[in-house]
Specification:
Structural class: alpha/beta
CATH class of the largest domain: Alpha Beta
Distance between the termini: 36 Å
Radius of gyration: 26 Å
Number of helices: 17
Number of domains: 2
CATH topology of the largest domain: Rossmann fold
CATH architecture of the largest domain: 3-Layer(aba) Sandwich
């Protein structure tokens, strides 16, 4: 694991972001911007900071193997930023944030609708002092509509937005029923869409001098992410159902249990199916008139799949992969996360990195997947300690001297 070189030009090296967000969707967006070179100033509550700092164990460990205060969850979404502690509930803290906003290109926030207006930190208030500001709000349900004032969480939105209706085992099979995705996919995709929107708004600003307000909602994102599933419903009027690890239109195209693990088999045509059952020593399943073509296999899946499952269970996972790859049948393992990071392709791509850290000595992270030849994503600064850069930012960006910073600290503003 290596620290990517940071000597190349940075695509967003001219951009400064004031990040008032916390937890995941907003920080995921600002981490993307930081990876691309933006100066991201993360505003946190004095004493506690981003909620995810306490979302452990696990925590990063120091050289002696002892837990630090840095939760692994927090580390996953905050590299490349500078942490500044400000009490935005105080009048002086609000004034400080407004002063910082004047020196920033982007403000990112995920407070409840109307919350920041009370502090004079909403879009209209900040636009008045910086007309070309790009201001991105991330909420559960958006800035308008009957649900606008509700709190929105990833799990809740996965359910409300239809994802859980198509995720999980078939209702008529053991273990059937809705399942959430194992990572906070709606939060992450909202952060990704927010990143795209911010970059588009900056491009518009650079051409026209006009800033704008971006209204991102987790529910909007989740519905958009239904993709072909949503389109299928809109054009047929029939809600789709759960298929677990199977495919509604292709058989076999699913997971199977091997003698020592699981494997994915994805036969996209009749020839691949024939090679699959021949490799497994069951060529008669290709000649059986019930299973000769894919439409017939789909029609008779309940008879075929148990026989295939019995066939696959007789051999070990790696043996199946070797046999099927040799005859051109698409297949692959279902890796646990340890196996993912041990995978030679993952290692060759340099996905895991180590960065120096003031408390842990070094922390292990996943680098940005954005590989760019001229302006590569750098991922060269570890997630900051709480308030690590307060003095630095107030001095460099706002020109405050030590006495002024000490006075703010004495009052509990920073």
């Amino acid at each position: 694991m290596t620290n990517p070189a940071s000597t190349s030009p940075k695509a967003l090296g001219h951009i400064r972001v004031l990040d008032l967000s916390r937890v995941l969707a907003g920080p995921w967006c600002s981490q993307n911007l930081a990876d691309l070179g933006a100066d991201v100033i993360k505003i946190e509550r004095p004493g506690s900071g981003d909620d995810t700092r306490a979302w452990g164990p696990p925590y990063a460990r120091d050289a002696e193997g002892r837990d630090t205060s840095e939760a692994a969850y927090y580390l996953s979404a905050n590299r490349g930023k500078r942490s500044v502690t400000v009490d935005i509930a105080s009048a002086e803290g609000q004034a400080l944030v407004r002063e910082l906003a004047r020196h920033c290109d982007v403000v990112l926030e995920n407070f409840k609708v109307g919350h920041l207006k009370r502090y004079g930190l909403d879009y209209a208030s900040l636009k008045a002092i910086k007309p070309d500001l790009v201001y991105c709000s991330i909420t559960g349900f958006g800035q308008d509509g009957p649900y606008a004032h509700r709190a929105g969480y990833d799990f809740l939105i996965q359910g409300m937005g239809g994802l859980m209706s198509v995720t999980g085992e078939r209702d008529d099979l053991p273990g059937g029923g809705p399942q959430k995705v194992g990572v906070a996919l709606t939060d992450l995709m909202t952060g990704m869409y927010a990143t795209i929107a911010v970059l588009a708004a900056l491009t518009h600003r650079d051409r026209s001098g006009e800033g704008q307000h971006i209204d991102m909602a987790l529910l909007d994102t989740q519905v958009a992410m239904l993709a072909n599933v949503g389109s299928n419903y809109l054009n047929s009027g029939k809600p789709p159902k759960r298929w677990g690890n199977a495919h509604p239109n292709i058989v076999p195209y699913q997971t199977f249990a091997c003698a020592d693990g699981h494997i994915i088999v994805a036969t996209g045509n009749d020839g691949q199916y024939q090679k699959f059952v021949e490799a497994g020593g069951r060529p008669e399943l290709a000649r059986d008139p019930r299973f000769a073509t894919n439409p017939l296999r789909v029609q008779n899946r309940d008879e075929l799949v148990p026989m295939l499952a019995e066939m696959v269970r007789s051999r070990r996972r790696d043996e199946w992969i070797e046999m099927l790859e040799a005859v051109g049948v698409p297949c692959g393992p279902i890796n646990d996360v340890g196996e993912v990071f041990a995978n030679p392709q993952v290692q060759a791509r340099g996905v895991a990195i180590e960065l120096p850290h003031p408390a842990a000595g070094k922390v292990k992270l996943v680098r940005s997947p954005m590989k760019m030849s001229a302006t590569p994503a750098t991922s060269d600064k570890a997630p900051p300690m709480l308030g690590q850069h307060t003095d630095e930012v107030l001095r460099e960006v706002l020109g405050k001297d030590a006495a002024q910073i000490d006075a703010l600290r004495a009052k509990g503003v920073v």
